[in-house]
Design a protein that fits this description.
- The protein has about 500 residues and is an alpha/beta fold.
- The chain has four domains: about 130 residues, Response regulator (Rossmann fold, 3-Layer(aba) Sandwich), CATH 3.40.50.2300; about 150 residues, 3-Layer(aba) Sandwich (Rossmann fold), CATH 3.40.50.300; about 80 residues, Orthogonal Bundle (Helicase, Ruva Protein, domain 3), CATH 1.10.8; about 60 residues, Arc Repressor Mutant, subunit A (Orthogonal Bundle).
- It has 20 helices and 14 strands.
- The strands form four sheets. It has a five-stranded parallel beta sheet, sandwiched between helices. The chain has a five-stranded parallel beta sheet with strand order 7-8-11-6-12.
- Helix 2 runs parallel beside helix 3.
- The radius of gyration is 27 Å and the shape is globular.
- About 5% of the residues have low confidence.
């Protein structure tokens, strides 16, 4: 059985009771209080092997108490609970030396697991942080999915581990990379982003590593690369899945050896940068296709972090809308708000462009409409205007409107046909195992005719095709290139 004395502080008597009973049943001795002053008195007296405390207490905020606790008893682990489930709460907890941050409401099993880990770890693992300015809110949302992101970021702030951020276009991958830098130990150094997909293939190595005068035609003077610009800071490699194979080989060598040479240069240059990479591609599939190096993937994928699409965290939409409207006010736009039906309409939308699409919508509303309070009809019109769908009915033809009866029947018949074909495919394998990569092969066989037919129906208009398919325009453009669909009739 576990053993040890745990101090619990929370101004909510029900939480004190529930947490105290759970810890007692687990074998711990527990003392509870509703006041930070009592908790501090116990800590000063040397009581407790671990502390669990709420942030907001009637007499003192736990973030104000934590520095004194870490100074008086630096080896005492403190678990912070909070109903203020924001990115900054997680960062404040980490910066002030909390062992763990636990957003309310929480699972008691998770709490017991954290307690067990804290009680079994060496007591000298915790550091005493320096106070920092916590103004600003780089990431917004209180959903369970975002809480996982916040907690992971808080753990990574003081490390130099390479991070691979995955997620659909518009989910905020660069915001996460900037948060890792701005609140980490390299925050005094530069943050240098580079969108690999936006650099011509024959210039990517020069962009990354720099070049010497005369290294190639047009190289009239020496030029430093992004690695040199990011020295002592963070290099953010966005859209890493689009990096040419030759550049991948050079990047792998840098990660392995910690040095590089400029294009046309011979002298190795030591580098001291943190690498954060991002992609909206399935790199494991790219490896199977021979488009991405497996050894580079494992070098970059030290800490994988998946950003959820907005449709998976629709409960964050009200906070995001208020955040974007408030930002608009600071930029000179008039203040706006949404009524309840309008907000609910936004939560029901599929958001193919994710948070970026929501931000653009709020900016457009603030700039174009005189109403202080925006209603559902205006939101319906905006969503419909931004997503005209071919062959769909409903006001404005929005991206998530129901199809006509004929179209719905055709879709149902199509899906049934796919199910029959998949069943026939697996029967054809008999007792043999299906081939590796079956999912991606079948998906490609479906994607090619679907995207080709959509482009043909829209006469090659990528904007309309992306809206019909529910894809971000950049995502569709990459699929057109990757699937070699430029020959589709009417392509623009």
């Amino acid at each position: 059985m576990p053993s040890g004395n745990i101090l619990v502080a929370d101004d909510d008597a029900a939480i004190r009771t529930v947490v105290g009973q759970a810890l007692t049943r687990a074998g711990y001795e527990v003392r509870t209080t509703g006041a930070a002053a009592t908790l501090w008195r116990w800590i000063q007296a040397g009581e407790g092997d671990l502390v669990i405390t709420d942030v907001v207490m009637p007499d003192e905020n736990a973030f104000e108490l934590l520095p004194r606790v870490k100074k008086a008893r630096p080896d005492l682990p403190v678990i912070v609970m909070s109903a203020q489930n924001t990115f900054m709460t997680a960062i404040k907890a980490s910066e002030r030396g909390a062992y763990e941050y636990l957003p309310k409401p929480f699972d008691l099993k998770e709490l017991l697991a954290i307690v067990g880990r804290a009680m079994s770890e060496p007591k000298n693992r915790l550091r005493t942080p320096e106070p920092d300015d916590m103004e600003g809110m780089p990431l917004v949302g209180r959903s369970p999915a975002m809480q996982d992101i916040y907690r992971a970021l808080a753990r990574l702030m003081q490390s130099d581990l390479t991070v691979m951020i995955t997620g659909e276009s518009g989910t905020g991958k660069e915001l996460v990379a900037r948060a890792l830098h701005d609140y980490g130990k390299r925050k005094k150094g530069p943050f240098v982003p580079i969108n690999v997909a936006a650099i011509p293939r024959d210039l990517i190595e020069s962009e990354l590593f720099g070049h010497e005068k005369g290294a190639f035609t047009g190289a009239n003077q020496r030029s430093i690369g992004r690695f040199e610009q990011a020295e002592g800071g963070t290099l953010f490699l966005d859209e890493i899945g689009d990096m040419p194979m030759e550049a991948q080989t050079r990047l792998l060598r840098v990660l392995q050896q910690g040095e590089y040479t400029t294009v046309g240069g011979r002298t190795p240059i030591k580098t001291n940068v943190r690498i954060v990479a991002a992609t909206n591609k399935d790199l494991r599939y790219a490896i199977q296709q021979g488009a991405f190096r497996e050894d580079l993937f494992f070098r970059l994928n030290v800490v994988p972090m998946r950003l959820p699409p907005l449709r998976e965290r629709s409960e964050d939409i009200p906070d995001l809308v208020r955040h974007f409207f408030q930002r608009g006010v600071t930029e000179g736009l008039p203040p706006k708000s949404l009524d309840a039906p309008a907000m609910e309409r936004l939560r029901r939308y599929s958001w193919p462009g994710n948070v970026r699409e929501l931000e653009n919508l709020t900016r457009r509303i603030a700039a174009l409409y005189p109403q202080d309070v925006i209603g559902e009809a205006l939101i319906e019109a905006e969503l419909g205007a931004s997503a005209p769908l071919l062959g769909l009915s409903g006001p404005g033809g929005g991206a998530d409107h129901a199809p006509t009866r004929e179209a719905a029947a055709a879709q149902e018949q199509f899906v049934s046909g796919i199910e029959r074909h998949v069943a026939d495919l697996f029967r054809s394998f008999g007792d043999s195992p299906p081939p590796v990569g079956l999912y991606h092969r079948v998906l490609r066989d479906l994607e090619v005719p679907l995207i080709a037919a959509t482009l043909s129906a829209t006469r090659g208009n990528q904007i309309k095709a992306a809206e019909i398919l529910g894809l971000n325009r950049n995502t569709l453009r990459k699929k057109i290139r990757d699937l070699d669909l430029r020959g589709v009739r009417g392509f623009k």
